Amino acid sequence: MDDSVFNGYDVTEKMMKSYKDNGFIIIKNILPPDELAQVREALENPKGVRQHAYDVEDGDNEGMFSRMTCWNSPGDDITGLLARSDKIAGIAEKLLGEDIYHYHSKLMMKEARTGGRWQWHQDYGYWYQNGIMFPKMMTINIAIDKSHKINGCLQVLKGSHKMGRVDHVLDGQLGVEPERLKLAQGKFEKVYAELNPGDAIFFDCNLLHSSSPNTSEFRRWMLAMCFNTKSNNPVKAHHHPFYTPLQRVPNSAIKACKDPLNMNGKDFLDPKSSTLADQNITKEIKT
């Protein structure tokens, strides 16, 4: 097994070392089939988080775009219980080494033949602009569909988080400054983070990552959950939250969820009021 791929939810010394050395770890089957089916059903329901979706244009490929929904509070629906669970929040807290809170979550939708690319970037390249002083943050992507090279899976530069934050420039989307990117690509191994449905990748906020357009016939949906640390509370108000205690739940709460479409209090992002630096938003989907 690759040194970045694991089974099981206990954070071992090997997992911690891999995360620190590589900037990411992959955990297989973090959503077993029954839980995955519950989550997928809720995400596909037009009364769920999808109703708040908007477009993010590719920038390079005319007619290509991704769809996204973003919310600040985890809430009590099935996506909120998942974000607050021991196997998501618990692992994130152990990897980051201190108390965490939910910064925001996103449903990222690359539809077949139209799903656009994401430029090479660091999440902290965006979040730095929000008054967050330290890169003590992470993102967790869970594959809802098969996420492989053919349909525009996540690509990462292994170990690139050790560079620290690098400059980003606006070129269609906000991405890493081209000359620095070229140097990084010559130094760090590019890894296609291919995931099967229910697999998850946990990655450092300074890890360089991107994804290609989805020109295949296969949809690629990804649920992303972003966490910040308590000690890293933003120093200015913006469109994502300050520290809010995370109400953790056991893993069993996911399967036991009685109200998977409870949208109360999730605080969905309004693309018209967010910053381009954080979300690369160009227009809102009309539904």
What does this structure look like?
The structure is a single chain. The chain is an alpha+beta fold. The chain has a single domain (5-279), classed as Sandwich (Jelly Rolls), CATH 2.60.120. Helices cover 22% and strands 25% of the residues. The chain has helices spanning 13-22, 33-44, 78-84, 86-96, 123-127, 178-187, 252-255, 276-279; strands at 5-6, 24-27, 54-57, 65-71, 100-110, 118-121, 137-143, 154-157, 168-171, 173-176, 190-192, 200-204, 209-211, 220-229. A hairpin with a 1-residue loop joins strand 9 (168-171) and strand 10 (173-176). Residues 275-287 have low confidence and may be disordered.
Distance between the termini: 44 Å
**Major sheet:** 8 strands, mixed
What is the CA-atom radius of gyration, in angstroms?
A: 17 Å
The 3D shape can be described as globular
Low-confidence stretches: 275-287
CATH architecture name: Sandwich
CATH superfamily: q2cbj1_9rhob like domain
Strand order of the largest sheet: 1-2-12-7-14-5-4-3
Summed up, the helix count is: 8
Q: Classify the helix fraction into a percent range.
A: 10-25%
Overall tally of structural domains: 1
Strand content range: 25-35%
The CATH topology assignment is Jelly Rolls
Structural class: alpha+beta
CATH class: Mainly Beta
Order of helices and strands: EHEHEEHHEEHEEEEHEEEEHH
| Count of distinct strands | 14
| Average pLDDT level | 91
InterPro entries: Phytyl_CoA_dOase-like
Pfam family, one: PhyH
Cofactor: Fe cation
